[in-house]
């Protein structure tokens, strides 16, 4: 049972309070209503009905701030995500979420303020000086940055909702920017061969293996001699070693699943040379001059003065290329060789064939042309085309 009473503020203004008992029997109240009807409606919805339906939320619980709940959410994510992903979440929390929402009670977060915050990160912030000149206070950020920051806040509020601190999550359902997929760069087999011939010999092996097999960089560098089956032309991928804060950290693969992939026969001499006279536990690829050390070649390779960019110029290949683009090249060469979607999915380590089709939809455009021709030939054999032609002539 809830009671609505009137009271006077220190300024002499009339306000209404709702006195009620919580499910545990303790008494509390909610103040500040300007109209009696508002107090009565709040009491009916948030107290009487909520207690009857078992959805009652203690207003005191909603006073916990985003800053107080954030560390617990991050600790939970640290248990369930890879170190590389956790680092991006922690960075988004420190840079975007904590400064803006750290002192805000979760019950005070609204859809409107969340939308304004997201829009501000996406579009940046500017002001005009006395002369009307625009001064940039904050640069516009990419969709990836915005989505990651929003995801951290929304995740914290999801937990607050589950813990019955708030009735709903105001961060869900707002308008968010869309990620624009970067156009893939595909090398032809001839270009890949030229690029491999334009870099140092030990990097040549890296270029050819990545460009023909399609594994991720983090899957390549921790490979051991024992992961190569020279007779079946297979490579076993069970570990990934991404760079986290400048440190290589071996971990599970991106999909948490091990897989065996093929390598084409043309790589057989390279694989046999890399495995020759070596122990099963030795790294397949090592940092030159540092035995037993994984290669650190990721970010700097694609800089204008990086070895990959220099190799492209020497090979006379226009445009910009990253190490990850060699994975796209492998996908395109597999499709051109006639591989079906499931084979490409398994080789690349995608979660599903649908994901492969989504990422590389442009590679399968030729399939539609071929399908059109084959259906035309089938319909011609069945004389369906002539029948439709007669129907059209009669209609005319």
TrEMBL record:
**GO BP of this protein:** DNA integration; DNA recombination
Family matches, as SUPFAM superfamilies: DNA breaking-rejoining enzymes (SSF56349)
Please give one Pfam family short name: Phage_integrase
Single GO MF annotation = DNA binding
Family matches, as PANTHER family: PHAGE INTEGRASE-RELATED (PTHR30349), PROPHAGE INTEGRASE INTD-RELATED (PTHR30349:SF64)
**Protein family per UniProt:** Belongs to the 'phage' integrase family.
Put simply, this protein is called Phage integrase family protein
Origin organism is Bifidobacterium longum subsp. suis
